[in-house]
């Protein structure tokens, strides 16, 4: 790492070399890392619900079409950019189109928001996991200090007499009163939930030690974190299929309703799910691809990983809806009244179903370990993406002994303290606001359009094809090029316009209306990411004007900065 250089004066100067950037030790590490970040909580709690809501098996038609038109082409584009340049998602733009480097900064803002907010879900899961080690799972009864008089334990013999319009379930009260201590609105931030804060600290400590050596440590951790959730999923699927009412749940999940295909909302949901679940315009694919060997076949990897992601979402639906079918059977309620999406599925509906099973502690432990590991993989990659961007921008500063570890410690500490807002009594209101407007909002659609235009039209789709051919030895399917040029930007822009036309303000639990300042905050945080793109263009334009004024050069064309600097 270091050496000594003797100058003519006889003075010995210690010369420190930069640490190696690092590469994946094997192709399998790359595949597991990408699969780990793609197959996340959205596959578990969002896709099955969307499939059920939007026509069952018929929903697969728009989903597959969007997958072919947007998901796979953009996946290849981002992975190839990282692999070709061996740079993160900011500095890679300096090789392709410096004028659009703002896209890289925008993706890092999005992933920073996600790193702060989504780890809170792991904190909740840790809380539930620790609570599962008890003689009786605490969300199964109303005999606890946090329960109210409205709490009713379900029993087929008392369903008609005790259940009223104001009644609540033990699982709901455990979630809202014991775990969250939720306030009446975002205006009431309330006090810090110290137990959740400790769970959040535990989650950050685990993330730090799994990422602190870069791909050298992350590549080893993913062997467990990316595969064990599949073991848990198979176990839960096997258990779910043996429960009474499971087949009814699967029928609700898959029964095709072709008439739903004429509803534009179904197509918008399919397009949004593809973009968000494949990590498009979040920088993670570029960062992970940058650690590949130069001649790695990223084209084949794209199809393999997209198939794994889509297949995992589909199979997760069987595990979830078989249990919801059992829940519907036990309570005598229609599936529409027990089906849920998001945190409501993972922390109310599923625990409630688990409480009805024999040995509920075992199935609760299996489920929440799976939730923790699904979230951990995504968190590892988010941190690695941020670290890669910073170290690639300032290699002489951070690629030295122990400086990466210190930078990571500072990053984790800052994110932890920012995340404390989300484990207050009003934290869930902020979390849903960030998720809706920033982490999975319209900003990703607009960034996809910008990225397609920058690479497809300005840098040139054929030039990127040449770069990919130089890496893998052959040219990809021609349809990819036309997707970058026409289909992807058209589809993303159309989806964005439709979502704006059909815009409805976010409501918490479909009832609570946020104050005006909260909506303004959400829109500001979301649009700020996109505004970085034109702001960077203006900044580069002004820098070139100042440079021309200082140097007196009249013939320099600032637009030439958008021509790639060859790195081959």
From TrEMBL:
**Residues at which Na(+) binds:** 36, 39, 43, 277, 309, 374, 377
Alphabetical list of PROSITE patterns matching this protein = NA_NEUROTRAN_SYMP_1, NA_NEUROTRAN_SYMP_2, NA_NEUROTRAN_SYMP_3
Signal peptide positions (record):
none
Q: Which locations, inside or outside the cell, does it occupy?
A: Membrane
Taxonomic placement: Eukaryota, Metazoa, Chordata, Craniata, Vertebrata
Q: Which family does it belong to?
A: Belongs to the sodium:neurotransmitter symporter (SNF) (TC 2.A.22) family.
Q: Which domain of life is it from?
A: Eukaryota
What protein am I looking at?
Transporter
Q: Carries keyword Membrane?
A: yes
CDD domains per the UniProt record, alphabetical = SLC6sbd-TauT-like
Query: InterPro entries per the record?
Result: Na/ntran_symport, SNS_sf
Between which residues do disulfide bridges form? 142-151
Q: What is its main location?
A: membrane
């Amino acid at each position: 790492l270091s050496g000594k250089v003797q100058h003519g004066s006889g003075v010995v100067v210690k010369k420190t070399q930069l640490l190696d950037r690092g590469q994946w030790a094997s192709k399998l590490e790359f595949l597991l890392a990408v699969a780990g970040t793609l197959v996340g909580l959205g596959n578990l709690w969002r896709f099955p619900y969307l499939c059920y809501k939007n026509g069952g098996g018929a929903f697969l038609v728009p989903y597959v079409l969007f997958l072919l038109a947007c998901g796979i082409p953009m996946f290849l584009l981002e992975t190839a950019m990282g692999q070709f340049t061996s740079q993160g998602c900011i500095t890679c733009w300096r090789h392709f189109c410096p004028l659009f480097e703002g896209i890289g900064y925008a993706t890092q803002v999005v992933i920073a928001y996600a790193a702060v907010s989504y780890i809170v879900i792991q904190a909740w899961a840790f809380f539930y996991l620790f609570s599962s080690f008890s003689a009786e799972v605490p969300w199964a009864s109303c005999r606890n200090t946090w329960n109210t008089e409205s709490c009713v334990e379900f029993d087929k013999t008392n369903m008609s007499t005790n259940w009223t319009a104001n009644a609540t379930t033990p699982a709901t009260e455990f979630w809202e009163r014991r775990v969250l201590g939720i306030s009446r609105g975002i205006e009431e931030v309330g006090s810090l939930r110290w137990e959740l804060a400790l769970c959040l600290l535990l989650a950050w400590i685990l993330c730090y030690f799994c990422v602190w050596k870069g791909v050298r440590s992350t590549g080893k951790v993913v062997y467990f974190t990316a595969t064990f959730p599949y073991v848990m999923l198979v176990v839960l699927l096997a258990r779910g299929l043996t429960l009474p009412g499971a087949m009814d749940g699967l029928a609700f999940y898959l029964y095709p309703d072709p008439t739903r295909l004429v509803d534009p909302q179904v197509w918008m949901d399919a397009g949004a799910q593809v973009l968000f679940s494949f990590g498009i315009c979040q920088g993670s694919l570029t960062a992970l691809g940058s650690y590949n060997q130069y001649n790695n076949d990223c084209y084949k990897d794209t199809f393999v990983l997209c198939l794994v992601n889509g297949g995992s979402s589909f199979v997760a639906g069987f595990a979830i809806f078989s249990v919801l079918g059992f829940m519907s059977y036990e309570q005598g309620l229609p599936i529409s009244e027990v089906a849920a999406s998001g945190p409501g599925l993972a922390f109310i509906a599923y625990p409630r179903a688990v409480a009805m099973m024999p040995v509920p502690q075992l199935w609760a432990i299996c489920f929440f370990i799976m939730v923790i590991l699904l979230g951990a993989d995504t968190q590892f990659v988010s941190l690695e993406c941020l670290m890669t961007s910073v170290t690639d921008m300032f290699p002489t500063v951070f690629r030295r002994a122990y400086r990466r570890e210190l930078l990571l410690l500072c990053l984790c500490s800052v994110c932890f303290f920012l995340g404390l807002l989300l484990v207050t009594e009003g934290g869930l209101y902020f979390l849903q606001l960030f998720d809706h407007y920033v982490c999975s909002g319209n900003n990703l659609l607009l960034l996809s359009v910008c990225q397609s235009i920058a690479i497809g039209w300005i840098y040139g789709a054929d030039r990127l094809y040449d770069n990919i051919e130089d890496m893998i030895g052959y040219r990809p399917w021609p349809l990819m090029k036309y997707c970058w040029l026409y289909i992807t930007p058209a589809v993303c822009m159309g989806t964005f316009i439709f979502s704006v036309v059909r815009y409805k303000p976010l409501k918490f639990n479909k009832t609570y209306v946020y104050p005006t300042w909260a909506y303004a905050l959400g829109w500001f945080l979301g649009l700020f990411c996109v505004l970085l793109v034109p702001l960077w263009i203006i900044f580069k334009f002004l820098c070139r004007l100042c440079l021309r004024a200082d140097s007196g050069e009249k013939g320099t064309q600032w637009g030439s900065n958008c021509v790639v600097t060859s790195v081959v």
